[in-house]
Amino acid sequence: MTTHITRRRVGGRVPLVLFVPALLGLAFLVVPLVGLLAQAPWSTLPSRLFSVEVGQALRLSLLCASAATVICLLLGVPLAWLLARAELPGRGLIRALVTVPLVLPPVVGGVALLLVLGRRGLIGEHLDLWFGISLPFTTAAVIVAEAFVAMPFLVISVEGALRAADPRYEEAAATLGAGRWLTFRRVTLPSIAPGIVAGSVLCWARALGEFGATITFAGNLPGRTTTMPLAVYLALETDPDVAVVLSIVLLAVSVIVLACLRERWIGALR
Amino acid sequence: MLRRTVAGALAIVVLTLAGCGDDSPAATTEVTGPVTVFAAASLTGTFTRLGKDFEDAHPGVKVVFNFAGSSALAQQINQGAPADVFASAAPKNLDQVTGKGTATTFAKNRLEIAVPKGNPGKITGLADFTDANRKIALCAEQVPCGAATKKVFEAAQLTPQPDSLEQDVKAALTKVTLGEVDAALVYKTDVLSAKQKVEGIEFPESGKAINTYPIVTLTNSRNPTTAQAFVDFVLSPKAQETLTQAGFETP
Fold this sequence. Notes:
The complex is a heterodimer. In chain A, 76% of the residues lie in helices and 0% in strands. Chain A is mostly helical. Chain A is globular, with a radius of gyration of 22 Å. In chain A, 35% of the residues are buried. By secondary structure, chain B is of the alpha/beta class. Chain B has 2 domains: 2-108 and 212-245, 3-Layer(aba) Sandwich (D-Maltodextrin-Binding Protein, domain 2); 111-208, D-Maltodextrin-Binding Protein, domain 2, CATH 3.40.190. Chain B has a 5-stranded mixed β-sheet with strand order 2-1-3-10-4. Chain B has a 5-stranded mixed β-sheet with strand order 7-6-8-5-9. The longest helix of chain B is centred in the N-terminal third of the chain and has 16 residues, at 2-17. Chain B is elongated. The N and C termini of chain B lie far apart (41 Å). Chain A binds chain B through residues 111, 114-115, 118-120, 134, 136-137, 215-216, 218-222, 225, 230, 233-238, 240, and chain B through 69, 71-72, 75, 135, 137, 140, 142-143, 162-167, 171, 174-175, 178-180.
């Protein structure tokens, strides 16, 4: 399915007009990180690092962010396909609705989730009454909150990839007798794989750093709902040094994971 | 122009009343201009009102508030945030701040049990907080209301079974107003602020953890006269009455 376009660098020097703002942009993103590293209490770092709480919070963060990403993939890719390919009335409105979690302050998102899935929520009330399921204050609630906030990143990336993909391959598959589902699986999906990976990476990263919706919808209980960002926030209340250490751990783990993923997946797909 | 004249006249009156014989230029001793007040989140409603009252009493003054958790505010001030006055929910956070005047306690607050209207969890006292089957929200130990919570449970010799340790008292209150928990421990002022949706239950151990609120002017203030005037206003009988109405106790 590869299109065999050789990527060549455009000749000549990088124009200053692009280079200077690019450099500034990079500095803008990286300098706060440098501040964090400069402030870190390096001498006591190892002893702070290997506490039970840190391990627990980190494990929970990785688990929940990954589970949230899987949910986003299962629901988000079909949604992106619908937005990009299907004949849909009011598509513009639907697309705008998809981005709601992006503009909503996460804490408000958390309250909204409580109003729907909480014990007295629109759906949550019945879940509680009929099945005895109460979502808030559980690990599942963390995953739900993270998926809610992170899904738009995946949908937008995948939809972009679908729009950029050449629809003629799908048409060709259709003329050869493939149904829509077969075409989707064997033609569409492989051609947008890089977009899906990029979207998943964004989605996972957003879920990993999620704070507001999580603490509002899932609460904060060590071992059950305390993810790294929540632990960082509370550490900041008493011991900013610990907060810095926790932030660095979270950063290091996410950078390592993301770098590996890029190398392995996106690299292989090129 | 008129506004300025009035402000000037008022400043003279205030200075005369204060018995201030200082001859420094009026520009630095006038009660006028903007004053930035960093105040604990639990003061949001009350201080917003006090700010309006203060502005009414001193035309030309503009009170700007920054409400957040006391420890976050202390950090912001130490990192150079432009604050004139700091009103903290705990003396501990005030101690963290460098470059300040003498602190005065202006209010006290105590914990109360908050339950959703109608008390669906049938909570009667602190002992119900040890029931794992009830949904309970408490403040995390790291924040002032959590420290107070720890004290009252120690005094009552009970081990609570919380479902969530909230990052501030308003978050704990939200869980009650939405009916997500059967009970939470919040301040008396919080119960009053949400009285349409929340009922309060007093308990004797609350006397073991009374929270005191200190207020102070900061040495870096660019408007020290107005800053001091605001602090004096908060300590005045009129402001104290507003605080009492909101559920605070006077020092």
